[in-house]
């Protein structure tokens, strides 16, 4: 590959040293991608057309589904092409676009998860004032902040990463263009950049996570005071799906961005990245559908109406 005419292109090494693994990954990624598109499109559709789902929770869930669709689409088609064929290259422009888009959408998802935790806090801890607190104007503003935060983060981190001199280096030991792996292409001392990435990750990852934990801390205090089993089950049903999604997303992405130079990140970083870019968006609609009676009811009404 290094002797072929790929001047200006980036070679995504991925798992090219394990051809048998590539075949398995191709099938798994393709199935996950199709499920992601179908699942998140269905959620977006039912949240848009079902009047019973015109609430802040499902407003933010619609945005989360849109983020997941765009996030996976910015990565998976090129990934499937590289897994299937002998060529493992992506144009430098394509790599830049992939870096900016995936970083923006990943950052947006982190803030959206924090906003959804605040929504659950308002629903459980302030039930009598929930409608007044989570009014449509505030919901739109919070969603706008999430998207703007994503754009701002990608413009800063992405530009700083691409500004590093590469001195002609093309081999990227990853499945796609991502900040921790792109930094390693630099032919200069990147210690300061790795510190900057660590600090930025602490702020952009842990700050939303702290807001999520703070919201659920208040929810736990309220729930503990309730002695009704039915109320406990209702609170768990309200927050359980979101907690599972948060655990899956933050548990995997933190291992790559918080400690990019750890032995664990070096050994398993590529597969971990596949998990939060391919598997987690697939599981999100399943989690929200299987654990949520409102969504299941909306699905039944939608299919029953279409059948009729």
UniProtKB/TrEMBL annotation:
GO terms for molecular function: G protein-coupled receptor activity; olfactory receptor activity. It is a multi-pass membrane protein. Its main location: membrane. SUPFAM superfamilies: Family A G protein-coupled receptor-like (SSF81321). The keyword DNA damage does not apply. Keywords: Cell membrane, G-protein coupled receptor, Membrane, Olfaction, Receptor, Sensory transduction, Transducer, Transmembrane, Transmembrane helix. Signal peptide: none annotated. This is Olfactory receptor 2G3-like. It comes from Piliocolobus tephrosceles. The lineage of its organism: Eukaryota, Metazoa, Chordata, Craniata, Vertebrata. The gene is LOC111525962.
